[in-house]
Amino acid sequence: MNNFLYFKFRKIKILNVSYKSILEWIFVIFLFFTGQPFYTWNNLLYKYSIVVCSAIFIFNFAPNKKNGICISILFYLYLIVSLKNTNMNFGLALAFWSLFIASPIFLKNTFRKYLILFSIMLIPSIVIYILVYFIRIKIPNIIISIPARDYSYNAFPFLIHPNVVNVLRFCAYYSEPGQLGTACSILFIANGFTIKRKANIPILIAGLLSLSFAFYLLMFIYIVLFLKVKYKIVILLIISILFLYVFNENEFVKNYTFRRLEIKNGKLIGDNRTNQFFDYGYNRYKKTNNYFWGIDSKTADYYIFRDGSSSYKNIILRYGFIFFCIYCFMVSFIAFSYLGFQKTLIAFLLILFGTMYQRPFVEYINYLYLIYCSIFYMSDRVKYYTGYIS
């Protein structure tokens, strides 16, 4: 009888652990879809994923006394985002709000699982990309398109690629290589900037193949700031030799690397986050009170989307300079409280401001999750599965 009770208790305990792990994996899978890979185009999977993530956030509610004031301020900041953004719906707003009340332990566990899933999904994508665009093996594909782009895409299993002549930048399952490069830089830096961790290898390869200016710039800054002198010299020499002797005569690589580092009219050519039309609107409102509080959504969308702009200035134009400053301060303060004044804090600030400069989408739950939750993932004060925060 006692043996039976012991077996029954042990079985329930195992089921409890499995249930928690399964719930986290379900969350991570749906969170992956909130990044809007091509599987979610022209269907409702993206919206359903937001609802599921919101519900799981709420299910893992845990009052955070440590940073209660900061979390509350972030909560109200996203209330402002919800009210001012014409594209915001209640489900998306709920996802933002519930993220800040979720348990840091849950967020750390799921960040690790998300990193693993993201890495695994990249492997077949990289293989197919090399087979199709380098080895020239024909693999069945279909042509798909989305309203936001004026060109179509070749869709393979696990891979999407713009149907544009002479563009070989790797996109994986995203609409553009810059989105992939930004995500890879966040995950690679948060996971220790090392290839000793196997999950980092596909992430690093994908980031390099994307030829994302943001990815290369963030990697360069991290190397200069954190790696030992001997490693800096070796890595920078290897990169220089590869580019100068192997790719120097390649016109495509020139356009996306060397020429983007050139300075023209006092501005870095690779800094193409804004355009002349957007800059005109931004500078116009910079001289008014709207600069501090943000302009109406319709006008902001007009300046942002007409010719395409992706800069931290988007946040200021839409939500105001005051919102921008409070947001940066609150997230930085939470990072400091969990990471302390250490190397990991500087690494996180590189993630935060590097991402905001390249992808200023504070209203995208996937980007917010990656930035905010990397704090807990890099923190030694948040323990895995123990239920304890020091």
From TrEMBL:
Transmembrane segments: 21-39, 45-62, 74-102, 114-135, 203-225, 231-247, 316-341, 361-378
Sorted UniProt keywords: Membrane, Transmembrane, Transmembrane helix
The protein, known as: Putative membrane protein
